[in-house]
Design brief:
The chain is mainly β. Helices cover about 15% and strands about 40% of the residues. It has a domain at about 30-120.
């Protein structure tokens, strides 16, 4: 029969005497060890800059910039983003129109649609992902690329100057005679 003492102990005992741990009751799993992600829901539209100190899950619409350099950014299957995204790890399942920069990784899931450039040391493109843009996996910032693309200034060796035209004509005329 049911005992009130069993309710205070969430672990259950099997018939063999083994104790099984309680099942988690959380409906939404934590995204990181630091806590759960902030969520921009399906009915939310944000125009402007999104910054913060926690992971972000986007199911709604964002227009502007998303800058969470030290945290994860996930664009869910119903998320629509017209913004440049910066994050530690960026995962895209929905649609993004803008550049995506991940400090560790950028992952495009099978249903994702991305138009823009991707910069990250690791990039994952699942089969079925739609992507239009370029990928830079060098780990360098755009300003570092610009510095590398500038040609180094070197002196050209000085060539012997050509003789004046009058002296060339004399030699040619002398050869004809």
């Amino acid at each position: 029969m049911w005992k009130k003492d069993d309710e205070s102990n969430p672990a259950a005992t099997t018939s063999s005497g083994m104790i099984t741990p309680p099942k988690p009751s959380s409906a939404r799993p934590a995204v990181s060890s630091a806590g759960e992600a902030a969520t921009i829901g399906r009915s939310i539209t944000i125009r402007g800059d999104v910054t913060g100190d926690e992971d972000l899950y986007i199911q709604g619409r964002v227009e502007g910039t998303v800058d969470l350099k030290q945290h994860s950014v996930t664009v869910g299957p119903e998320g629509r983003v017209k913004a440049n995204i910066k994050g530690r790890m960026v995962t895209i399942e929905g649609e993004v129109d803008g550049d995506v920069r991940g400090q560790e990784q950028v992952a495009l899931r099978s249903a994702s649609k991305v138009t823009g450039d991707i910069t990250a040391p690791r990039v994952v493109l699942e089969d079925g992902a739609t992507f239009l843009g370029s990928i830079d996996m060098s780990g360098k910032t755009p300003s570092e690329h610009k510095q590398e693309s500038k040609p180094a200034l070197t002196e050209r060796p000085k060539a012997d100057p050509m003789p004046p035209p009058s002296s060339r004509e004399n030699k040619t005329d002398a050869a004809k005679v």
